[in-house]
Design a protein that fits this description.
Elements lengths: L7 E5 L1 H4 L20 E3 L8 E2 L8 E12 L2 E9 L3 E3 L21 E6 L2 E2 L6 E6 L3 E10 L5 E9 L4 E8 L9 E5 L6 E3 L13 E4 L5 E5 L14 E4 L9 E6 L5 E6 L11
Antiparallel strand pairs: 1-18, 2-15, 3-9, 4-5, 5-6, 6-7, 7-13, 8-10, 9-10, 10-11, 11-12, 12-15, 13-14, 16-17, 18-19
Amino acid sequence: MKKAFPKLLIIAFLTLAFLFFSQFFTSAVDENNASAEKVLPNGYIGGGVAQGWHGDDSSWDYTLPFDFVFYGEAYKDIKIGSNGVICLNGEGCSSWLYTLSNNFTSGPIIAPMWTDLRTDRNSNDIFITENADNVIIRWNAVEYGHTDDMDIELILYDNGSFKFNYGAQATPIVNNLPQVGFSVGDGTNYFESSYHLNTDFDWVDSLVWGFTPIITSTIPSNNGTGANLTQTPSITFDRTIYRATGTISIKQTSDNSLIESFPATSSSITGWGT
């Protein structure tokens, strides 16, 4: 027997969406409106494998050990620039002359400290640490025309989130105010962080962002009618989803009234990543 369902809106709360870190859970950013950041106590890690990348206005190819999803697109072959920035589509990443709002040459970028840096002085280098679920990129660099070292870290997580860490910085930036944030490269979708245009990053708090996984399909369909009573409700995302605490609610779109609610930890929910 078939029965017409009322129009339903399936809402998977953020805590269902993805497990961000083992230590904390952050608010996510809508993938088309990246405008939120979370400030955390300084989480600078240090270390890493020296890449031998010494240069000024230079960039190097690097292949991530996982697909990194940014604004709904997956990236793996990227470029890492000496100027405190990475370019996700592997295009030019050597210049520091652009801003997050008018970045039309480097495509999608993430910039923990995009300014005129160099990694060919002192014992400067770029260091990389590959972990099971993340990659740490660390710049040990100096500002062009100066000699004092500074340490900057970018952590990319395999769930699409990322984090900026800052270590020691003996003297503030002098010449060019750093661009701090990220950009798609279209002049519209970009975000200037709370540290944007700052000059002193000496052991400041860390910044972190997470992008909400995108729902690609549901059964029954969102606002759908005429669902078969024998159908098992399902939600399909654009990436692997891991079990976390939270609640799944099914609501009626006409008045937002709750039809059913159950915990994400329920054994009746299957399909989690492992």
